[in-house]
Amino acid sequence: MNAVRNFFHSIRVRLGKLPRWAQLVLWGLVVLLVYLLPIINPPFLTTTGSDFGAVLFSCAMYSLVAIGLNIVIGYAGLLDLGYIGFFAIGAYTVGMLGSAHATLPLILLVPAAIVVTMISGVLLGAPTLRVRGDYLAIVTLGFGEIVRLVLVNSGWTNGSRGISNIPTPPSIELFDIPHISWQGLTAFVDLETTTTFLKFSVTDSVPYYWLTLTLVFIVLFLDWLMQNSRVGRAWEATREDEDAAELMGVPTFRFKLLAFATGAAIGGLSGAMFATKQQFINPENFTIIYSVLFVAMVVVGGQGNRWGVVFAAVLLTWAPEKFRFLADGRFFLFGILLMALAIFRPQGLIPPKRTVRARKAEEEETEILEEGHAHA
Amino acid sequence: MDLLINHFWELTITGLAIGAVYALVALGYTMVYGVLRLINFAHSEVFMWGSFAAVWALMAVGAGKASGLGLAGYLVIGFVAAMTVSALIAMLLERVAYRPLRKRNSPPLIALISAIGASFALSELMGLRDKPLGWFNLENLRDYLGRPRENLPLPLQIQTKAVFPVFNYDVTNIDLIVLLSAIVMMVILDQFIRRSRLGRGIRAVAMDPEAAALMGINRDRVIRLTFLIGGIMAGAAAMMYLLKIGVTRYNAGFILGVKAFTAAVLGGIGNIRGALLGGFVLGVAENYGSALFGSQWKDVVAFLLLVVILLFRPTGLLGESLGKARA
Amino acid sequence: MPDTTPGALGSHDEAHDGAHDGSRSARREDIVTNPDTSVDISVEEVTDLPPGKMLEVDDVTLRFGGVTALDGVSFHINTGEILGLIGPNGAGKTTCFNVMTGVYQPTSGGVRFMGEPLGRRKKFEITKLGIARTFQNIRLFHNMTALENILVGADAHHSTGMASALLRLPKHRREEAEGMDRAHELLKFMGLERRADELARNLPYGDQRRLEIARALATNPKLLCLDEPAAGFNPAEKVRLMELIQTIREQGYTVLLIEHDMRLVMGVTDRIVVLEFGKKIAEGLPAEIRDNPAVIAAYLGVDESAS
Q1: Residue A234 domain-assigned?
Q2: Do A334 and B117 touch (CB under 8 A)?
Q3: Which residues of chain A have a CB within 8 Å of the CB of B116?
Q4: Cβ within 8 Å of residue C296, ≥6 positions away
Q5: What is the Cα B318 distance to its own chain's centre?
Q6: Comparing A11-15, A129-133, A354-358, B132-136, which segment has the lowest mean pLDDT?
Q7: Number of folded domains in chain A?
Q8: Chain B residue closest to A239 (CA)?
Q9: Origin, by domain of life (chain A) (predicted)?
């Protein structure tokens, strides 16, 4: 694993030495490539058993989830086992206001989902964030299950029958993009399979992928803004030593609540994406086992590392689709994975930048020493 | 409201019976918390595996309709099978999921993550129990295993009979069996903890691990013992649960585990008698709650109770700590 | 201000000498910069305080169950002085700190700061009022860099919230810049500049202690409370730290210093309060305390090397 990290690190160092415009061009190409993945269908990455576009949509949606939960677990150090509850509230807000009880357009539904989940995050957090960390885990677990039970038992949410006809984003059909298919390593343009830019429909997941991916980039940027500010520092300090943080003037409770509500809002956003993509939701989509999957993403990726958790979310979503034999046993494997990581590598596969920061400092120091040496 | 008043005694007695199950499972949470300060999240699966052991053991001996001495025999087989398997799983859990973490002094949240992982692995393993049949050509066992994701019924059938009345409710033989076995287990445990040398060791470690180590108490041994006892109690609870509910399934542990944890917190986590009290209180309270709001809200009532306790009296009814409390 | 800590802490030059010896793998501990006490770390709101009683501890009693940790303790701290709070182990010194910083609520009695009762103020509110502290057992944010640790302290008087952080409003920019300036100033003052980007947990012990003081200073405290800041230091290091503390006072800060080692406080403090078994047994100028029979009795038999 160290070798892997050093490899990435040396790449980063080399990239860092390129001129700024070249870095930007490189970044632009990578982003474009990520957007075009479902069109290109790269031979190894593409999934044969299931629609690659749909898999990529799931990857993007779970990336959102992982980024949101990473704020709660990774930054603020609050173990939230009920994240699926917020995801469900987001999805149901879209369903209820878009189909079951009103017919608002999606452009209003998504902000509504975010606001409603944020409020529910505050309502859950305000009383419970004062309890001890391990108790919080159990309380949130209970919350996730309560949400599902309420959805099942309440006539207002249509009970276990769920909600259908959830609105899609507005389509603007401009042009068709043919997909590429592969035979071995030879690429063909497949004119039979096309994606219409930009037509949201049940049959083609690619536009949903593009939409959600865009949200992922936006949320990542917002996440970066938050982390590199007083807010991010306050979260980190609270996680490190709550009492000391409070004695250094950090209103820890307020910041924990903020982390909780922010995480909830992002969970709600991903739930909203789920609802509009599926167009049909029922309580069985939101069982508690997903909460554990979400926690696994954050722990595997390395708590506190936004790229790490995105990578883990994509890996844990894609792998069972790619290797179908994993699909049945995946929750078993996630369980084993969590246990193994806790025992052997609690900082996750890709530890957060903290260590990178430390490494940077070490390097500078070595340089100073070497300079000193040359000097003498 | 009428429902609650008219069926008050029925709700109370059946609540106590299911509460006994919560209480015995809660012991596992509370004792492990006492000595390790760890929420043994996977304890629910210890219970679940015990319930499957009981069902399979009774299937193996061809249990069916039974009464009298035959019933007693089947009960013994069921209890022993459940208690043995639960104890083994509990010990395995300690060895695999917790001991390595203890050796390196991991922070509590990491230990909790390991526990959650172990819990899902154990539960999913049971949920995938038909997979090996195909690999090893054991298709003839399929009936025996049942559908992996669905209920597996207890083969033992007991004719429900009224035994004696309590006000307007006739206590059934099943309630009686469940309550009596719970009381027997509780009395044995209580005496063991209070009187035996090993029991005193558990209390000493709970009170002050370092002092206990200085006094020559082997902490690892005490911890193993704690998991063993927790497992045995969860096994007994599993058999009692089967008698009350009649079926088990691969995820039966989850809800029951959260409720048993609620019971432990209700009584004051770390406090053995508190866990027992908490179990009974929770069983009765959720019965009353379901009479008031409808039985589909039963689990919600239990969860809300947990939240309310944590907020207003996080030390529980009898106060925390295995060591400081008298038992 | 003369450089008060030469030599033994290891100067930058020495690190170069080490490299000169051919040991290319020069150890990190070798690079140490000296505290630069000429750096101006004073802040107006702190330096321009009128003279008088800054903090008054008024008949404070604190009981835990049956144990009386503090028993009717009263004393005050004057603006601009260094007050020593001494006493044998378990005398209630740290408990006293905890009452002053809002960790514990006194059973009876109260604390007034700048004439205002602290009442049931929360810990962070008391910090914002102007009391900052360090801890006997170091409690840095171990997985944050030295710089970030100080920034957290500086954030105590910032108010950037989610909105200004996300929109990068001028307030965020101003406060970030201000915090950075303050942090670098303090790092330089404490001689930790080279350590700015290192994780707190990787710092050598002495640097961790000094980083804690820097973090507390970053909150712009009117009163700086140091809980055995020299614990674990060798005698020479202790003396240098005391000199540093004096410099901090000369820059306008009021200091409350808990110290176990009586001889050490004699030299730096203006006045001393002595606690024993939760009671105040003496208060006065260092010279008076030295000759006070009650204090001598309290310290007799106390193994000073244990500190």
Answers
A1: yes
A2: yes
A3: 81, 292, 295, 335, 338
A4: none
A5: 20
A6: A354-358
A7: 1
A8: B109
A9: Bacteria
Letter for the amino acid at A223?
D
- 3+ Cβ–Cβ pairs closer than 8 Å linking B and A: yes
For the cut 80, the answer to whether the pLDDT of residue A326 exceeds it is: no
Q: What's the number of domains chain B is made of?
A: 1
Residue B92 confidence class, pLDDT cut points 50, 70, 90:
very high
- What is the pTM assigned to this prediction? 0.86
Residue C1 in any domain: the answer is: no
The range of the structural domain enclosing residue A228 comes to: 51-287
What ranges in chain C are assigned the alpha helix state H?
Answer: 12-20, 44-47, 93-100, 123-129, 146-154, 162-167, 170-190, 205-218, 235-250, 262-268, 286-291, 293-299
CB B35 within 8 A of CB B226: yes
DSSP characters for C199-235?
Answer: BGGGS-HHHHHHHHHHHHHHT--SEEEEESTTTT--H
| End-to-end Cα separation, chain B, in angstroms | 38
Residue of chain B nearest A347, judged by CA positions: B110
Residue of A nearest to C127 (CA): A249
In a domain, A23, yes or no: no
**For testing contact with chain A, the best of C17, C131, C141 (most A CBs within 10 A):** C141
What is the CA angle B47-B128-B78, rounded to 5? 35
A227 domain-assigned: yes
Looking at CA atoms only, how far is residue A264 from chain C in angstroms? 15
Identify the residue with better confidence: A356 or B148. B148
What range does the domain containing C145 cover?
9-19+29-48+140-214
* Res. B211 pLDDT band, cuts 50 70 90: confident
Contact of A330 with A321, CB cutoff 8 Å: no
**Spatial contact of C62 and C106, defined as CB atoms under 8 Å apart:** yes
Query: Residue C239, exposed/middle/buried by CB under 10 A (0-12, 13-18, 19+)?
Result: middle
Does the distance separating the beta carbons of C31 and A365 come in below 8 Å?
Answer: yes
Question: pLDDT, tens digit, for every residue of C48-77?
Answer: 788 889 999 999 999 987 788 999 999 999
In a domain, A184, yes or no: yes
Alpha-carbon gap, residue C251 to A211, rounded angstroms = 57
Residue in B closest to A149 by C-alpha? B300
| Tokens read off for A183 | 């035979």
| Helix H or strand E segment including C62 | strand C53-64
Structure tokens at B184: 């027997």
What's the structural domain count of chain C? 1
- When pLDDT is cut at 50, 70 and 90, the band that residue A375 belongs to is very low
Please tell me what DSSP assigns to residue C269. Answer: -
Residue B149 DSSP class: T
CB contact under 8 A, B39 and A137: yes
- Interchain contact A341–B (C-beta under 8 A): yes
Query: Tokens 């009428």 map to which residue?
Result: B2
